[in-house]
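This week, think about what follows.
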Amino acid sequence: MIRNNNSLLLQLFSFLLLLFPQIIKSQEKSFSRQPSGQFIFTPHERSDSEPQQVHISLVGKDHMRVSWVTEDKHARSVVEYGTKQGGEYEAKSKGEHTSYNYFMYQSGKIHHVVIGPLKPNTNYFYRCGGLGPEFSFKTPPLNFPIEFAVVGDLGQTEWTASTLKHVNSKDYDVFLLPGDLSYADTQQPLWDSFGRLVEPYASQRPWMVTQGNHEVEILPITEPTGFKAYNSRWPNPHKESGSNSNLYYSFEVSGTHIIMLGSYTDFDDQSEQYTWLVDDLGKVDRKRTPWVVVLLHAPWYNTNEAHQGEGESMRKSMEDLLYEARVDLVFAGHVHAYERFTRVYDNNADPCGPMYVTIGDGGNREGLALSYKKPVSPLSLYREASFGHGRLRIVNETHAHWSWHRNNDSDAFVADDVWIQSLISFKECWNTQQHHLVAHQEL
């Protein structure tokens, strides 16, 4: 009955969420931007006891969390895994399970199992709950180079499917998502549909996510706290990084320290998130992790007319921390367009500040944010309202390559790219940092 009810709800929501295509013009006169695309529903086609919505995420330096859902409440929370294909598994791990109610919706049994230790840069095969198909994934490399796919505001439209196809057309190691996953917006069956849509990708490479405004899902009286579905379905390794909240955390992979911040939980200088961030940045060892990357949802720098100023209070609270720690890059979503800034600090170009990138153009159902402020800010080096994805390939301790791939018909067209030098390699920035810290302490 649960599946039938959810199916009826999905059919109802499909009428509400269909988008009317609009042909719009790009900054490049020769290119017509894509229409918004229709909503995609991914049905449940396996038995109640078989795993669905399988996805993986990094836990510590050599473990992986495997998450999935079953309609069968008696299904086991166990993962068998090994390096041989075809059911010859060398190890087995047991985990935990949860479920949640949301208004009239009852989730399936949500399983989370941590497996490992795992070898780096190695293909593993695994089965969830002892039933269903065999899945596989590749662990990230131990050292450079490493490649991240970066996609914000994903949703589940035709352009979402196109973006994921383009991402998967070239190998990568870790998928980074700065908020707005399913666009369920309180309609819980859409979380299930989203999980099934992304399973072919999220079961093969670790997905590391942070929350956006569409994950809040507060309902007066019945659901006052928010993030119930997000926290139940997408647990992050927050405890391993000393965080008390699934909404912000950090992890390290292949010489890179990545910080996931929460735009929709407290962030002022009296908040737990602020205190945690100070502590986390203080523990970063730039000899072990020369690159530091931050992801959040609401951008601190934005020349699009959409969502102007929505990240400003967080910027004022936390920007000094990122600047003093010499964070290399900051990725954001929320604005449904792409924009790359120069290195910035306090609204000025600064060679020792992070490079800011807005990449909220994964395929959302709300359409593209078309209008930009004029004249063009000298801080903004490239901006375009088109669907696409980004790739950050960190080559070594000092150099990385960033590229943005526009979804251009059947091909992912590289519309913007730049080589980046890590701030750890700029001695001038670290001398400036010492002067800044001394001055700050004297005040």
User: Anything to note?
Assistant: The first strand starts at residue 24 and ends at 25. The CA atoms of residues 100 and 107 lie 6 Å apart. The chain has seven helices and 26 strands. The helical segments are 2-17, 158-168, 189-202, 228-233, 272-282, 312-324, 427-442.
